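Encode chain A's predicted structure.
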Amino acid sequence: MVKKKPVRLRPYYRTRYAYQKLRVCKHCHHFTVLWEDTCANCGRHALIPVMDQAAINAKRSMQTERLAALLLTLVALLLSQTFLQIAVCLGGGLLLTVLLWLLQRRMLPSETRRQLDKLLHGSQRLILEGIYLNLSTASAAIKDDEQIGYEILREIATIVHNDRIRLQQIVLLQSFVLRKDMDLELEPLLIEDFDSDLAAYIGEIAKVKRELIKASAIRYLLIHERYILQMKQGASIMTAAAGAAVRMKKYVDMYPDFIRRYARGLPRERFLRLYQIVRRNPDQSWDGLRDEVSAIYNEKYRWDPDFQKWE
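Encoded structure for chain A:
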């Protein structure tokens, strides 16, 4: 059995949009999703968020428009033949430039978003090259420090969604001692096919951070239940997930047969939670779950004072 290592994962900064993880070098236009201080391509301290670069591009575009307006004013002044024409051209040109500047101030957010779309769509090749370089960094880091390697893959997975990276993360997570205080995730790591490491990871999550067990994880276990039960700890994985599911009534409503099948193996504390849900909802049978809970109660907990409170 491989001994698991205690680690302290750095907090994961979640962004509303995936592109907010990207940074670009102002010098060589290399992209990265990592937290590095210097550009891995040119070595300069010139990395900024892509949104900041889009804002720079937007302001530069607007500045060009203002310069064009001033240039047109200058041309009009040169072509003027009378003092009145000069005054009208100068006043009109300055007024139009000021109005343009005021309009640009209002349009800056929308222009920044337009420049962001232009930057991302026009830099797809450079973004891919940057991601591949990040993956190379991750591969090298895993050999020296699996924790750093996992943290790099976690950042890359924000942008690149494929099962290969998910499975690499799962394998690394399975080499760590998992704790409740760790910044863990489950739903982003789910894949369609059966994987024993993923199943084992779900079983551990169900014990240390049961709030991460949601409908998608339960569906994965049910789809691959036959293969999971062939694993050495397969029944324990399914039972742990059932114990995590009973924290919310909606999962009892959605998967009563799943919980019924593994209710007998639930630890006392998790079965008490299930018993409370059943007692609070006397009109629901949940496809035989109520009868199973009553049978287990009579066999194991009939004289337990914590259960008797709910009689």
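The chain has a mean pLDDT of 90.
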